[in-house]
Automatic annotation (TrEMBL):
Keywords: Amino-acid biosynthesis, Aromatic amino acid biosynthesis, Lyase, Pyridoxal phosphate, Tryptophan biosynthesis. This is Tryptophan synthase beta chain. The keyword Mitochondrion does not apply. Its EC number is 4.2.1.20.
Amino acid sequence: MPLKYLLPEEQIPRHWYNIIPDLPSPPAPVLHPGTLQPVKPEDLSPLFPMPLIEQEMSAQREIPIPEEVRSALALWRPSPLFRAVALERKLGTRSHIYYKYEGVSPAGSHKPNTAVAQAFYNAKAGVRRLATETGAGQWGSSLAFAGQLFGLAVTVYMVKVSYEQKPYRRSLMRTWGAEVFASPTDKTNAGRAIRGQHPDSQGSLGIAISEAVEDAASREDTKYALGSVLNHVCLHQTVVGQEAQAQMKLAGEYPDVVIGCHGGGSNFAGIAFPFARDKMHGKQVRLVAAEPTSCPTLTRGIYAYDFGDTVKMTPVMKMHTLGHDFMPPGIHAGGLRYHGASPLVSQLVAAGLVEAVAYPQRACFEAAVLFASTEGILPAPESSHAIKAAIEEARRADAEGHERVILFNLSGHGHFDLGAYDQYLAGQLEDFEYPHEAIEASMKKLPDVG
Ligand SMILES: *Cc1c(COP(=O)(O)O)cnc(C)c1O
């Protein structure tokens, strides 16, 4: 029998867990892109409504989740936690592998957890329209869905290469009422500038962010929404880890290691931060972020101040970065192609509280196919990095002659990524190591912060 741990609906968490007050040192200040001086809340108000700006900077450990947001979350939460018994058997491991499944949300990933919160606070503040970017389309579709729930129009700048490769994510966004453009567009100064320099530009998340930020900053009725990286996004995702803690209790175990894949850091933060709280209070638990070798932000990027976008319009944050002009190779884990990382996750990596690992994409697809053929769920290519890390943890424990309790976040399903699976199965996917020289060159363009 498969082992599945479910919580009753009333056990949807009532608070988000804010890690900031528990950090070993206060977070580095966020800087204004023009002056490179610390930003004030007003500086961010063209982009975000005040409650989200307050959450971004809050020192309050537990922030109540509004009832309207809990009701929206109840459409798919609490999400199930499984013990991967069939996978364990196939591996022949003595370790116990658990996964928290976030693919049960309407958009098929963890991203609606923050999309509904962000849409709620914007609607409450009288905002009519949201502008955002999306890479593979997971975030754009999550925000489109949340916009429908709270009566907001949504415009999505979708990285051009994904716009062309993932037509069904576009269909999903349009079905949920959103307007979708291939970025770079000719609708913004940022988009026109990039097209002027690189007429064949396939786009990048950094460029699409510039377009969405410009759109929001130049319209009174519009604000911006980001699906990862920022503190308030990581905060909203902590429902995942809090539920997982209660479910691990039902299973009668506590994890030795907690794993999430890492793009901008939000699903990792979601599962790991509540356990990081335990760790900072003396509990023995390892926290592992898994990323692709083609976009090795945490494992090979520099921990430094950098811009969040290509055209240098966003605030400057201290984070692991590959450089704001990073041009990602076309790997399929679209959601893991961002040059930067969550400042909070970066700080935990720098403090030695979080470990980072990187895997090439073919090894991750191999892990994904093994997972699909045992546990049944077809994972998102992004999530496959966490699966690969979990399998490696189990193998290493076996080699060392002990057993480990392993928990990972299965951040989404891969039903819109079947083109990538086809390519993998046809032997057409290549591994790619992001070149050292490209990182060196980008590091010369970091802002000069004293
Ligand atoms: C967007 C996405 C990611 C990466 O984003 P994080 O902010 O690092 O979580 C991972 N998995 C899935 C399924 C995604 O859609």
